[in-house]
Amino acid sequence: MFWRLFLTYLLLVLIAVGLVGLLIWQRDRPLFFDLANEVGLAVLLSTAASIGLAYLLARRFARPLSELTDGARRLAQGDLGHTIRVSGGREHAQLAAAFNAMSSRLAATFALNAHDHEQLRTILSGMIEGVIAVDHELKVLFANDRAGALLGFDPQTAVDRKLWEVARQRGFQELLEKGLRHDGPYREELDLKGPTERSLAVYVSRLPSQRLPGAVVVIHDTTELRTLERMRQDFVANVSHELKTPLAVIKSNVEALQDGAVEDPEARVVFLGQASHEADRLSALIQDLLSLARIESGQLGLELQPVPLDRIILDCLERNQARAEAKSHTLVEVPPPDGPPDVPALADADALRQVLDNLVDNAIKYTRNGGTITVRWSAADNTAWFEVEDTGMGISDRDLPRIFERFYRADKARSREVGGTGLGLAIVKHLVQSMKGTIRVSSQLGKGTTFRVMLPKANT
């Protein structure tokens, strides 16, 4: 820019001098030579001065333009906070002010876009659903952390890579291809196999822009919902079965009595006894169902207060002594070996009594005649605990994780024989948790089972 202006100014000066000289040459050649001899030096000096003036004028005009060009280049490189300052005339200053205003607006616009982008990324990253954006070639445009956790890939390294390269799930790949071919939103359930099996609900929505074909994929983990649904179905089936069995026995006994057995004193006693037994069983089942419903809904209204473990355990053993003697069981109590027996637990007395009765009742039921049931208790740090140990049949490792489920029975045939509703351990677990405690179980087949309940220790 500078050299072009300089040469332009210089050319104008030379043209002006040349035109004057040409006019004199054409009118009077002797005069031209006389003037050349007399003012030649002055002409040379004037020409040199003109060159210097052209240089200064070109520099004065080109410098603000260079500053503007440099400022525009810095703006193009992303330096939106740069301010252009020029030392030229008013026009240059106005142009610089326009550039600075544009820079300020661009900076504000880019800052807003960056804020919105970061906000959107934060929202998507915090979602419990997995979100993946892909183009028409299934190249990953965006993936949040939840999507990576569900499909087993790193979202940070997945961008600009094909989805099948990072998420090696053939079923998911086929589902996504179906969604891209579908005109509207597409939904399908998917079961992922592997070390951790998952049930997923996948939603595929094609991007509306024709310039950016692709799709947004939303993945919802339905594993827990599926599990709860199966538990609900099992619960309904088990309740129906448990209610149906005693009702069928009662109905058959009543029909037998109606058919004439009521006239036979011995038969009448047998049928009425069976009906009474099944009615008691039905009543116990309904009572346990109601208790479990109250516990799970939080309507039990427990009052946590210091409860001496020794007293409540001794009362429990006394209540169950007759049933234990009927099966030749030995009930053993083991107080703390290195402290007073009255360990205070922070618990609800009635709930703790129900927990103990259920555990000791189970131990008596599932221990063969002549066995031993041991109840020990103690305290450690801020925890009061007690154990109910039996020498019964034990529980297999396969059944052990499920014994606190409602109606779950490790040995169904044995459970039917000894009776019970199948809800006792479920009630025990919920009661212990309601008292801010935990319950653990350990068992060996053929050797016995031990339940340990840990509760907060009351301050005395």
Structure characterization notes:
The protein has 460 residues and is of the alpha+beta class. The chain has four domains: 2-99, no CATH class; 128-221, 2-Layer Sandwich (Beta-Lactamase), CATH 3.30.450; 229-296, Helix Hairpins, CATH 1.10.287.130; 305-456, Histidine kinase-like ATPase, C-terminal domain (Heat Shock Protein 90, 2-Layer Sandwich), CATH 3.30.565.10. 56% of the residues lie in helices and 17% in strands. It is built from 14 helices and twelve strands. The chain has helices at residues 2-27, 29-76, 90-125, 145-151, 155-158, 163-166, 170-181, 223-258, 265-296, 309-319, 321-326, 349-365, 412-418, 424-434, and strands at 130-135, 140-143, 186-192, 198-206, 214-221, 305-308, 330-334, 344-347, 372-380, 383-390, 438-444, 448-456. The strands form three sheets. The chain has a five-stranded antiparallel β-sheet with strand order 2-1-5-4-3, sandwiched between helices. A five-stranded mixed β-sheet has the order 7-9-10-12-11. A two-stranded antiparallel ribbon has the order 6-8. Strand 3 (186-192) and strand 4 (198-206) form a beta hairpin. The longest helix has 48 residues, at 29-76. The radius of gyration is 47 Å and the shape is elongated. The two termini are 93 Å apart. The mean pLDDT is 77.
Give a short overview.
The protein is α+β, with helices and mostly antiparallel strands and 460 residues long. 56% of the residues lie in helices and 17% in strands. It has a five-stranded antiparallel beta sheet with strand order 2-1-5-4-3, with helices on both faces.
